[in-house]
Amino acid sequence: MAYGLQLMNASGTVVFDTNTATGGVCVGRYSVATTGSSFTFPAYAGRTNGRFIYANGVPGPAYSFDTTLGYPRFNFDGNGFAAYDVLLFIF
Amino acid sequence: MAYGLQIENPSGQLVISSEALGLFCYGKFSAYSSVGVSGTATSSAPGRQAGYQTYRLTTGNSDPIIIAMDLPSGVKVGIRSVTYIGSGVWELEAHSGDTADSDGFDTNEFYTDFWAYKSYSSSLSGSYGLALYDSSGTLTFDSNQGVPLMARDYVAGTGGLGSNFTISSLTKPAIIGYTPTNDTFVQHPGANTWNVIRRRGCWVRSGTTVTKTTYTDQQYRVFGPDAPDSEDGIFDQPGFTVEGAHLP
């Protein structure tokens, strides 16, 4: 690698490499209300992409990401039957 | 940010931030028990039910964990539940199987590798390496506590069942991401006879292709003039792939 950070285990195998990792630092776990929720991250102004995974096995119907406010915002629709948890990543 | 550390990959994507919630692989679940497929699909409830396996891991507390699952080639792998059962122990129930019968039930069941990721404990675990703190003084990265989460691909999981996603070439591909897709559909094989079929979401991999799919979890028969309820539960199923060969 020309630059970046690598971590190796005790055997010398690279187990973390910023050159081949795909984007997204975890910014936390959030609960989406049954009627839907938005989550904003002013501290990450300038970052323009987000990703998520479900965190407790309960699904949600629709998701969008925007920077209309000048910083990342995640918008989740409620599923109408239960709150669900998401793990959010920004890159 | 006024200070701290951020690192991007060559695409300009943020991959380390001292302000983020760092996650690392805490350990691998141990196989605990296995239940085989059972019952007859043409009988009344419960009819025929898919097999599953349980696993346990002691983390010492109820702090949230995130699960990575191995994706052996051709095997349907799906998490059914993750439960904190007390005394620092987590129990995972999952399905891993292949060789489906004519009703879609996997007849070959086995244990698969599952790992738990969690956020760093607050105390440094070594005297060398790299540690990062956020602006509140919370330890958010510590190279000595375990393999940091290193996502290789993002699988959006959008589209219907059967949607394919290409991942990186990995030695032991694993995926982080719950599989919430579940549905129930009803067949009408004859007068006053209904088949109720419940399916659960899972992943299946072939080479560098990962497919969002389901396995048949339960099928039973209902008799009478009225159709039983069906339920459409096909949702997005996003996930991150990781290199399982680098995990404990």
Helices and strands in order, then pairings?
The complex is a heterodimer of chains A (91) and B (248).
Chain A: E1 6-8, E2 14-17, E3 25-32, E4 37-40, E5 50-54, E6 63-66, E7 73-76, E8 84-90
Antiparallel strand pairs in A: 1-2, 3-8, 4-7, 5-8, 6-7
Chain B: E1 6-8, E2 14-17, E3 23-28, E4 30-35, E5 48-49, E6 52-58, E7 66-70, E8 76-86, E9 89-100, E10 106-109, E11 114-119, E12 131-133, E13 139-142, E14 153-155, E15 164-166, E16 173-176, E17 182-190, E18 193-206, E19 209-223, E20 239-243
How much helical structure, as a percent, in the residues of chain B?
A: under 10%
Count helical runs of chain B.
Answer: 0
What does the overall shape of chain A look like? flat
The count of strands of chain B amounts to 20
- N- and C-termini, Cα separation of chain A: 21 Å
Written overview of the protein:
The complex is a heterodimer of chains A (91) and B (248). Chain A is an all-beta fold and 91 residues long. Chain A has strands at residues 6-8, 14-17, 25-32, 37-40, 50-54, 63-66, 73-76, 84-90. Chain A is flat and about 50 Å long. The mean pLDDT of chain A is 94. With 248 residues, chain B is mainly β. Helix content of chain B is 0%, strand content 51%. A 6-stranded antiparallel sheet of chain B has the order 3-11-7-16-20-14, with no helix packed on it. In chain B, strands 4, 6, 8, 9 and 10 form a 5-stranded antiparallel sheet that branches. In chain B, strands 5, 15, 17, 18 and 19 form a 5-stranded antiparallel sheet that branches. In chain B, a hairpin with a 2-residue loop joins strand 17 and strand 18. Chain B is elongated and about 70 Å long. The chains are: A mainly beta (91), B mainly beta (248). The A-B interface holds A 4-5, 7, 9, 13, 15-29, 43, 47, 49, 51-61, 63, 87, 89-91 and B 1, 7-11, 13-17, 19-23, 64, 66, 79, 81-82, 129-130, 143, 147-154, 168, 176-181, 233, 235-240, 243, 246.
